[in-house]
C-alpha cells in the first residue's frame, strides 16, 4: 500500500471527525467487505490461472502457458475501491 499524502490524511481526518459513530461503523464495514471481495476475486483468479496452466502443460502447450500468464499479469481487470470512486 502506498503512503498517503499529508493532504489526504488531513481530508480523511476532517471527514471522519464529522461522522457519527453509525456512519463510521458503516464505512468500516463497507471497507472490510470490499477488502474481502478483492481477496476472493484475486484467489479465484489465481486458481483459474493455475488450473488453465496445468491443463496447457499437460497438453504440452508451453508457449500458451507463458502467454496466458503474461496477459493475467499485465491485463487483468483492476479493482476499484469505494474510496477511489468518491474522488
Structure description:
With 87 residues, the chain is an all-alpha fold. The chain has helices spanning 6-17, 21-58, 62-75, 82-86. Helix 2 (21-58) runs antiparallel to helix 3 (62-75). The longest helix is centred in the middle third of the chain and has 38 residues, at 21-58. 0% of the residues are buried. The model is unreliable at 79-87 (pLDDT under 50).
Mean pLDDT value: 78
Provide the gyration radius in Å: 19 Å
Percentage of residues assigned to helices: over 70%
Main beta-sheet annotation: none
**Count of helical regions:** 4
| Percent range for β-strand residues | under 5%
End-to-end distance: 18 Å
Helices and strands, with pairings:
Blueprint: H1 6-17, H2 21-58, H3 62-75, H4 82-86
Helix pairs in contact: 2-3
Condensed summary:
The chain has 87 residues and is mainly α.
Q: Which tags fit this structure?
A:
4 helices; mainly alpha; 87 residues
Amino acid at each position: 500500500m502506498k503512503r498517503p499524502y499529508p493532504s489526504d490524511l488531513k481530508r480523511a481526518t476532517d471527514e471522519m471527525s464529522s461522522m457519527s459513530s453509525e456512519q463510521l461503523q458503516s464505512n468500516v464495514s463497507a471497507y472490510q467487505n470490499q477488502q474481502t471481495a478483492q481477496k476472493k476475486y484475486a484467489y479465484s483468479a489465481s486458481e483459474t490461472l493455475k488450473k488453465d496452466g496445468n491443463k496447457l502443460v499437460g497438453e504440452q502447450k508451453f508457449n500458451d502457458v507463458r502467454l496466458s500468464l503474461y496477459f493475467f499479469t499485465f491485463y487483468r481487470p483492476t479493482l476499484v475501491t469505494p474510496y477511489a470512486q468518491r474522488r
